[in-house]
Amino acid sequence: MIDINAVKNIEIFENFSDEELDVFFKNAIEMELREGEILFHEGETGTEMFIILSGEISIYKELGLNEPKLLITLSEGSFLGEMSLIDKSPRSAMVRAGESNVRMVVFSRGYLEALGASYPDIVYKFMLNIIKISAQRSRLTTERLISSRQTLDNINQ
């Protein structure tokens, strides 16, 4: 069973009580990736999301080049894979363990649906937190795109 104290301070669970965390993680599955091991490739079908408990995950875009391009590295407390969990779309990037082993919790669509049948308020709170954090990520991406566009405009002048 997942140590609730290890997840209490993760942003996605910031407004959860200890009792809600106990319920949410009661049957959760923990997994480990070895250093450099690939979790999934871009384009694969996915119905799970992952929360990093320890270690680092690197996310790459496979652009048809010899080497995939590193987009970002995520560490403890970060989550990934939520888009495929929500809309069943293919994975938008490749994900690989960093330079050490990575411990993660896996939440499948089926796990959340089953939990939601008995505890809809807890799953609602979880999904609302995913939406909130995803909106923050989207705003940051928009700001980066605007900044990049301004840089390109300055170069072209």
What is the level 1 CATH name?
Mainly Beta
Overall structural domain count: 1
- Using the CA coordinates, give the radius of gyration: 17 Å
In sequence order, what are the helices and strands, one letter per element? HHEEEEEEHEEHH
CATH architecture: Sandwich
Helical content band: 40-55%
Order of strands in the sheet with the most strands? Answer: 1-8-3-6
Short description:
With 157 residues, the protein is α+β, with helices and mostly antiparallel strands. It is 41% helix and 25% strand. The strands form 2 sheets. Strands 1-8-3-6 form a 4-stranded antiparallel β-sheet.
Topology of helices and strands:
Elements: H1 4-7, H2 18-25, E1 29-33, E2 38-40, E3 48-54, E4 57-61, E5 69-74, E6 79-80, H3 82-87, E7 94-97, E8 102-108, H4 109-118, H5 120-156
Antiparallel strand pairs: 1-8, 2-7, 3-6, 3-8, 4-5, 4-7
Helix pairs in contact: 4-5
Structure description:
- This protein has 157 residues and is an alpha+beta fold.
- The protein has one domain: Jelly Rolls (Sandwich).
- Helix content is 41%, strand content 25%.
- It has five helices and eight strands.
- It has a four-stranded antiparallel sheet. Strands 2-7-4-5 form a four-stranded antiparallel sheet, with no helix packed on it.
- β4 and β5 form a beta hairpin.
- The longest helix has 37 residues.
- The model has no long low-confidence stretch (mean pLDDT 90).
